[in-house]
Design brief:
The complex is a heterodimer of chains A (147) and B (451). With 147 residues, chain A is of the alpha+beta class. Chain A is built from six helices and three strands, in the order H-H-E-E-E-H-H-H-H. A three-stranded antiparallel beta sheet of chain A has the order 1-2-3, with helices on one face. In chain B, strand 1 and strand 2 form a beta hairpin. Chain B is globular. The chains are: A alpha+beta (147), B alpha/beta (451).
Chain lengths: 147, 451
């Protein structure tokens, strides 16, 4: 297979898609968002718990392609204990990476392991898959009353 | 151009050598994708176009382009003649009269045209004869669980607008219709029965004459979705005795932006219009308008002239190859697809098993791998397939899945392309590291390759 396909389906991504982190919605929570990609049926429901301005827990459930599920899992590892401004900064950085068409490396300081999703940006049709959970988090934050 | 004489079409089956020659008419088939020769197995979504179709369209645009059905100048007269000649060719291709062929943007618009004509009749619009299309509470519209959304949602909406009830014939596990249910559902309240000739997902060929007979016995009309049959098999709509039929140009070597509604002449002449405006009227006052007879009554506004002409050239091309020969060639490719897929562990084919009649396509699910990932892996090998729900969510729900992968063949596909596709699918489970539960106990577990 081509090197770009290998970079699309890196081992880290496959591991997260097979054994996703923070999968299964936790009781309670301050906000929730359900996002659906109608072209392929990818679905993510994401729930956050907050304390003040800080996200204390992110849990999710869903089904779909390896990219959408791994992306939700990677996101769930990234944002706990961060405040709202920090989270938005990371979502923006991820969106910029996804729109880069393979020209950006991705800032590991900001995105952690989620930089492995950078290969997705070369496949325009798959960017929506990777963005699904991140859009859900953005939506959940918008629904969360300011502290 | 002359209308092809059916008698000059060779009765012998299509050969690989002949298909290789036909492929030269489709330059896109020579493209390379990710370093591999393109294997285009997505004609069920949209077919490729031969140079002859583009030449016909270009010749018209460069030398005859003009406004049809108006103007007294030479070009306008010639353009009108070429445009109407294309209608005659398409009508002939499906065994009906040219006055029974209405140009639409696509098959979806054609279904909506009928649904909205019924809707307008239900509001009392149209001539007195239009009342036969009026629906209300107590009336029933019948469709099936296996439809493309284009032949489902317009009926949901029509039911909602008129108070009629939508009833749905369920599918069997092999994708065929539950005919006992069809016999129970189609009854005195049924006003229209809308179903697909050939499923775009399972490749099942529905029993048209039996359904037509059930509908006509109770005085109901029949609309046939011929999107997956008109491009692929000989079609005689008059002989099938359907009342309406729809199909799309871009699935049959023609351009996007043109589709066809067939309607039985006496029905079209009695139906109120859908879109209104220029080109579809006789006398207009500030208060009201009189309408032209069909087909012009349903062709408001400037028409897709060059596209219709190109579609005329497309059906010429298909006729010259011969629809029976195309059907037989594709049926063999369809069997090759389903036999190959069914033999693989961890693969579930939606639709009939090998050996049972199916169209030249196969949709399948790979255990543990989402269709989108299957399609991505195949694309890396230059193999173009469709992934997703193929605009048939209820059908997928019936099979307990949200998405599938579909390979669909056309006259230009070869057994070697089908084999390359099958080889690609064999690589999918290994690449994604999935252990199919159907693997024999003794089999080696597949290693994740190339990483």
């Amino acid at each position: 297979v081509s090197s770009s396909l290998e970079s699309l389906y890196q081992e880290v991504i496959m591991d997260h898609s097979r054994a996703p982190h923070n999968h299964g919605l936790r009781e309670g929570g301050s906000a929730e968002s359900h996002q659906l990609n109608p072209t392929c049926g990818d679905e993510v429901t994401l729930r956050i718990h907050s304390h003040g301005d800080t996200i204390t827990s992110l849990s999710w459930e869903g089904h779909g392609c390896a990219i959408s599920q791994a992306s939700a899992s990677l996101l769930s590892d990234l944002v706990v204990d961060l405040d709202r401004g920090n989270v938005h900064e990371r979502i923006d950085a991820f969106r910029e990476l996804m729109r880069s068409k393979g020209t950006l490396e991705g800032d590991e300081e900001l995105l952690g392991d989620a930089v492995v999703l950078g290969g997705v940006s070369r496949y325009i049709a798959r960017v929506k898959c990777a963005m699904l959970a991140w859009v859900a988090l953005e939506d959940a934050l918008a629904k969360t009353p300011a502290a | 151009m002359t209308v092809p004489d059916a008698s000059i079409v060779s009765p012998a089956p299509l050969t690989l050598a002949e298909v290789e020659r036909l492929r030269a008419d489709f330059p896109i088939l020579g493209e390379t994708v990710h370093g591999h020769p393109l294997a285009y197995l997505d004609s069920g979504a949209t077919a490729q176009r031969p140079v002859q179709v583009l030449d016909a369209e270009r010749d018209y645009v460069l030398h005859r382009n003009s406004a049809v059905h108006r103007g007294a100048h030479t070009l306008a007269a010639e353009a009108t003649e070429i445009f109407e000649d294309a209608r005659a060719r398409v009508a002939d291709f499906v065994g009906v009269r040219e006055s029974e062929v209405v140009w639409t943007s696509n098959a979806t618009e054609a279904v909506n045209l009928v649904a909205y004509a019924f809707s307008n009749a239900s509001l009392g619009r149209g001539a007195p004869a239009s009342s036969r299309f009026a629906l209300g509470p107590g009336d029933e519209i019948v469709t099936t669980e296996g439809e493309h959304h284009a032949n489902l949602i317009p009926w949901q909406e029509l039911a909602a607008r008129t108070g009629a009830t939508l009833r749905v014939i369920p599918l069997n596990d092999d994708g065929t219709l539950q005919m006992q249910s069809a016999r129970d559902i189609i009854g005195v309240r049924t006003r229209i029965v809308a179903f697909t000739h050939v499923s775009n997902v399972t490749g099942v060929i529905n029993p048209v004459s039996e359904l037509v007979s059930l509908a006509h016995t109770v005085g109901a009309l029949v609309l046939l979705d011929a999107c997956q049959s008109a491009p692929h098999r000989p079609l005689d709509l008059a002989e099938l005795d359907v009342d309406f039929a729809v199909f799309s140009g871009h699935k049959m070597l023609g351009p996007t932006g043109v589709g066809v509604l067939y309607g039985r002449a006496e029905l079209l002449d009695a139906m109120p219009p859908f879109l209104t405006g220029g080109s579809m009227i006789t006398t207009v006052t500030l208060e009201k308008a009189e309408y032209l007879p069909a087909p012009q009554r349903f062709e408001a506004g400037t028409q897709r002239v060059s596209q219709a002409i190109a579609l005329g050239a497309a059906v010429d091309y298909l006729s010259q190859v011969g629809m029976s020969r195309i059907h037989d060639w594709e049926a063999a490719l369809g069997q090759r697809l389903v036999e190959g897929l069914s033999a693989m562990p961890g693969i579930t084919v939606l639709g009939p098993p090998p050996g049972v009649e199916r169209a030249g396509l196969a949709s399948f699910v790979v255990e543990g791998v989402h269709a989108h990932d299957v399609g991505q892996y195949l694309d890396d090998l230059g193999i173009a397939v469709r992934v997703g729900h193929h605009c048939a969510q209820p059908l997928h729900r019936r099979f307990g899945v949200t998405a599938s992968t579909r390979a669909s063949a056309y006259l230009y596909n070869t057994p070697a392309e089908v084999d390359a596709f099958l080889e690609g699918v064999r690589g999918v489970t290994a690449f994604f590291g999935v252990v199919p539960t159907m693997y024999p106990e003794s089999a080696e577990l597949p290693e994740r390759t190339s990483l």
